[in-house]
């Protein structure tokens, strides 16, 4: 794991200081004057001047960096700009370059897992894609832990397996929905989660959730359990419940069900030719979905 601040310190800052020190020396300032203006030691200025500091060529060749160095050098040398003003100007550029730009690309190169986001994010933005995705995965993990430790949940798992899914805020397809690869299974009476949640690994439950969202539902998460009239009746005590036709296209059937009442939080069908009857619980996040099922498990009638 490497933080973007490390990229700034290791790649940007030495190059930027070296360029600015060279610019100031070129304007006739002494090493002492340059050291005072930049808040560094004279020995550091000497190293910059002698080329003893590694320079990142991508940073040095960036026209915005070059322009800023020239502007700060002129302002500092003439006394029309204070060191604090120069620092503020540099900080502005750093933040700009961190947002899907030069520093974001250097960060990606030094930390390959970021490649999935293609550098198009601001790492410090609380709503940036990596942070949002991490929060969604954490929510699904927490929900899964709740289901794994819920007595009676295994009895709610249908023959095709269950899944707990949560979508990114602006989800458009299944690649924007986190879920369990391979689904949650009943293994000898215990709910078993085969691996950690990932994005893009659920088609069915994610498809139901996405169809509901496209029809106007505010739900960000869903979980499926087996169908039983008693289960539907128990859910109906706390949820708006609507049946849909399993033999109709999911997008159409779920869409019509949600459009009939956008506050629906439970969708179910009683099966069809080769289709197992299933109940879907919609919720604001994976934890809330797990809590709804957890409460249901405690009331589950014994077969």
UniProtKB/TrEMBL annotation:
One Pfam family named in its UniProt record: ThiN
Domain HTH cro/C1-type residues, every copy: 27-48
InterPro entries from the UniProt entry: Aldolase_II/adducin_N_sf (IPR036409), Cro/C1-type_HTH (IPR001387), Lambda_DNA-bd_dom_sf (IPR010982), ThiN (IPR019293)
Superkingdom of origin organism: Archaea
Annotated GO MF terms: DNA binding
Transmembrane segments: none
Name of the protein: Helix-turn-helix domain-containing protein
């Amino acid at each position: 794991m490497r933080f973007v601040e490390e990229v700034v310190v290791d790649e940007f800052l030495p190059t930027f200081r070296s360029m600015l020190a060279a610019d100031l020396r070129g304007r006739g300032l002494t090493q002492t004057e340059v050291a005072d203006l930049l808040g560094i030691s004279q020995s550091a200025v000497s190293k910059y001047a002698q080329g003893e500091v590694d320079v990142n060529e991508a940073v040095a060749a960036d026209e915005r960096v070059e322009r800023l160095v020239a502007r700060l050098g002129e302002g500092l040398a003439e006394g029309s700009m204070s060191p604090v003003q120069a620092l503020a100007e540099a900080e502005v550029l750093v933040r700009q370059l961190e947002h899907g730009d030069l520093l974001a690309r250097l960060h990606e190169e030094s930390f390959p897992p970021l490649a999935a986001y293609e550098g198009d994010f601001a790492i410090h933005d609380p709503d940036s894609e990596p942070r949002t995705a991490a929060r969604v995965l954490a929510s699904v993990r927490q929900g899964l832990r709740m289901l794994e430790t819920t007595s009676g949940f295994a009895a709610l798992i249908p023959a095709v397996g269950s899944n707990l899914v949560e979508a990114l805020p602006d989800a458009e397809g299944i690649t924007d929905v986190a879920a369990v690869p391979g689904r949650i299974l009943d293994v000898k009476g215990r709910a078993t989660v085969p691996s950690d949640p990932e994005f893009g690994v659920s088609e069915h439950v994610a498809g139901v959730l996405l169809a509901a969202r496209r029809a106007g539902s505010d739900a960000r998460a869903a979980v499926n359990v087996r169908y039983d009239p008693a289960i539907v009746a128990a859910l109906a005590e706390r949820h708006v419940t609507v049946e849909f036709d399993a033999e109709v296209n999911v997008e159409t059937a779920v869409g019509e069900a949600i459009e009939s009442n956008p506050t629906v939080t439970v969708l179910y069908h009683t099966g069809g030719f080769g289709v197992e009857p299933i109940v879907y619980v919609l919720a604001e996040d994976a934890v809330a979905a797990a809590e709804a099922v957890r409460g249901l498990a405690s009331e589950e009638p014994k077969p």
